[in-house]
């Protein structure tokens, strides 16, 4: 069968220098391009891939299509850092030039083996618009930073019987003397699942079967993407991104969502017994997270974007960024997310204060769209209070706390540049609101990350405000006392 190709199935090797310079020039954007989040110089960024601390440096790879903001031929872009703060761009790590990856090098993870970094990924294959397959592939990075595709790719050819061509996003890890590979998959009857392969040497793989996830709705999406497995405090945690889950209360409001399940993974019997399952994030723009381990600390990056949503930067031929790196912990059987401690290196020009609001608005002095804000609520005699960020006379995003319902709401409806409105303009979550409520805000031009109560509730959202919309307002319908600390933040990524 002939390989089906469209214009979007070009690699960067097919571009002229002039074309790339033109793309880079068109993507210049001083208003909305972040300064400490990872973003593409041009083209479309999506899933983080191959995250690792290897040979004394942090490595982040991500899905990248150079030629526009469609989901075209995916490459693996590559950045490195010594401290999770200052990021350098490196040459493209994986370019899909081979038949086994004819339509893109899709997502995957990494693991250090024999003092080399093994990069596992999915080679996407399309025979026509509706007929596809998938291969699982390997590239290896040595200590000199050289990356070569494995000479006997693919390491897994095609998909098992009973599944569609939607099999992708390998998560490889080692347990005792065996390697395991989790893959997001879709059954022939269009049901999302995770399938498992095993290997003794990380190269030769045998299909083990489908993971039986217990205590989950029978109909929980038509595809499960980006499976991840971690262990914290002797608790097994499964993270995945189901597609096609219907909204339920405050949950699953995005077109695609991310969940975590705390429970017990039995790889001998291919079962995962769920004790607790929740959405990982409550914001508008969060998908395809991936974790890695450094000195026993589990660190997560995610794609700060959402498929099938049109963004205001699309016209400039660039789209999306990654979240900041986050450390993960468990408390009260909940998975908590907070920015890694290393990010304090970005801080300068500290200001602080405290105030009592009595049925009015207080303005925290701010003229920047890049900052860190920490607020601690000291006393609450109020039914509704909150923050308005990226604010001016005619726009702003509201983070509002309703004490009567113990509900927190993020509302981004009040902007000139609204987008994705077909999926709603607010996101809500239940939360215990008391005198111990704390809020951390990370703002970076067009991305807002909000961490409440030490990461119990997290909102990640893209915000495209006007140049003068930088005010920070604190408001209340009765009495609220608070104290705050604010920092300006330095540039962290090579522009």
Outline the structure in words.
The protein has 495 residues and is mainly beta. It has two domains: 12-339, Glycosyl hydrolase domain, family 43 (Tachylectin-2, Chain A); 343-489, Sandwich (Jelly Rolls), CATH 2.60.120. The protein has one helix and 36 strands. The chain has one helix at 17-26, and strands at 43-54, 57-65, 75-81, 87-94, 105-106, 110-113, 116-128, 131-141, 147-149, 163-175, 178-187, 192-199, 206-210, 212-214, 223-232, 235-243, 259-266, 271-279, 287-294, 297-304, 318-319, 321-322, 326-331, 334-339, 347-358, 361-364, 370-381, 384-391, 396-402, 407-414, 426-430, 438-444, 447-452, 457-462, 471-476, 479-489. Strands 25-36-27-32-33-34 form a six-stranded antiparallel sheet, with no helix packed on it. It has a six-stranded antiparallel sheet with strand order 26-35-28-29-30-31, with no helix packed on it. β32 and β33 form a beta hairpin. The model has no long low-confidence stretch (mean pLDDT 97).
CATH superfamily of the largest domain, please?
A: Glycosyl hydrolase domain, family 43
- Looking at the chains present, what oligomeric state does this protein adopt? single chain
Alpha-carbon Rg, integer: 22 Å
Number of helices: 1
Read across the widest sheet, the strand sequence of neighbours is 25-36-27-32-33-34
Proportion of strand residues: over 45%
CATH class of the largest domain: Mainly Beta
Classify the secondary structure makeup into a structural class: mainly beta
Could you describe the largest sheet, including whether it forms a barrel?
6 strands, antiparallel
Shape: globular
* Low-confidence spans: none
Q: How many domains would you count in the coordinates?
A: 2
> Can you tell me the CATH architecture of the largest domain?
5 Propeller
Question: What portion of residues is helical?
Answer: under 10%
Distance between the termini: 43 Å
Q: Can you give the mean pLDDT? A: 97
Which fold name is given in CATH as the topology of the largest domain?
Tachylectin-2, Chain A
């Amino acid at each position: 069968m002939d390989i089906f190709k469209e214009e979007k199935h070009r690699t960067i090797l097919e571009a002229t220098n002039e074309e790339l310079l033109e793309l880079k020039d068109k993507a210049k954007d001083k208003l909305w391009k972040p300064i400490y989040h990872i973003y593409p110089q041009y083209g479309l960024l999506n899933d983080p891939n191959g995250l690792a601390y290897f040979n004394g440096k942090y490595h982040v790879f991500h899905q990248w299509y150079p030629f526009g903001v469609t989901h075209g031929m995916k490459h693996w872009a590559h950045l490195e850092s010594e401290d999770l703060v200052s990021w350098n761009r490196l040459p493209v790590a994986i370019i899909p030039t081979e038949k086994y990856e004819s339509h893109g090098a899709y997502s995957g993870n990494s693991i250090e083996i024999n003092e080399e970094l093994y990069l596992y990924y999915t080679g996407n294959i399309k025979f026509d618009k509706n007929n596809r397959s998938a291969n699982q592939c390997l590239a290896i990075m040595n200590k000199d930073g050289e990356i070569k595709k494995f000479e006997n790719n693919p390491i897994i050819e095609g998909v098992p019987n009973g599944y569609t061509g939607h099999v992708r996003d390998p998560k490889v890890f080692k347990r005792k003397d065996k390697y395991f590979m989790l893959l997001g998959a879709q059954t022939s009857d269009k049901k999302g699942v995770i399938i498992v392969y095993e290997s003794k040497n990380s190269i030769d793989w045998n299909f083990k079967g489908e993971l039986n996830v217990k205590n989950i709705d029978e109909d929980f999406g038509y595809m499960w993407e980006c499976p991840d497995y971690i262990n914290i405090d002797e608790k097994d945690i499964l993270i995945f991104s189901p597609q096609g889950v219907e909204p339920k209360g405050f949950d699953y409001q995005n077109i695609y969502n991310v969940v975590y399940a705390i429970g017990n993974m039995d790889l001998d019997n291919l079962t995962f017994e769920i004790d607790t399952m929740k959405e990982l994030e409550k914001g508008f723009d969060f998908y395809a997270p991936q974790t890695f381990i450094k000195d026993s600390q589990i660190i997560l990056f995610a794609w700060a974007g959402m498929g099938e949503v049109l963004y205001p930067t699309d016209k400039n031929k660039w789209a999306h960024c990654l979240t900041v790196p986050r450390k993960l912990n468990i408390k009260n059987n909940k998975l908590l997310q907070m920015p890694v401690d290393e990010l304090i290196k970005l801080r300068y020009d500290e200001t602080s204060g405290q105030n009592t609001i009595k049925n009015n608005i207080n303005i925290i002095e701010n003229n920047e769209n890049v900052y860190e804000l920490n607020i601690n609520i000291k006393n609450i005699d109020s039914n509704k209070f909150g923050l308005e960020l990226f604010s001016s006379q005619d726009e702003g995003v509201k983070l509002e706390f309703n004490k009567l319902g113990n509900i927190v709401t993020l509302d981004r409806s009040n902007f000139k540049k609204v987008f994705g409105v077909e999926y709603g303009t607010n996101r809500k979550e239940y939360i215990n609101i008391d005198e111990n409520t704390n809020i951390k805000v990370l703002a970076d031009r067009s991305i807002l990350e909000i961490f409440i109560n030490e990461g119990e509730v997290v909102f990640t959202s893209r915000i495209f405000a006007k140049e003068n919309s930088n005010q920070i307002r604190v408001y209340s319908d009765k009495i609220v006392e608070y104290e705050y600390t604010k920092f300006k933040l330095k540039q962290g990524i090579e522009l």
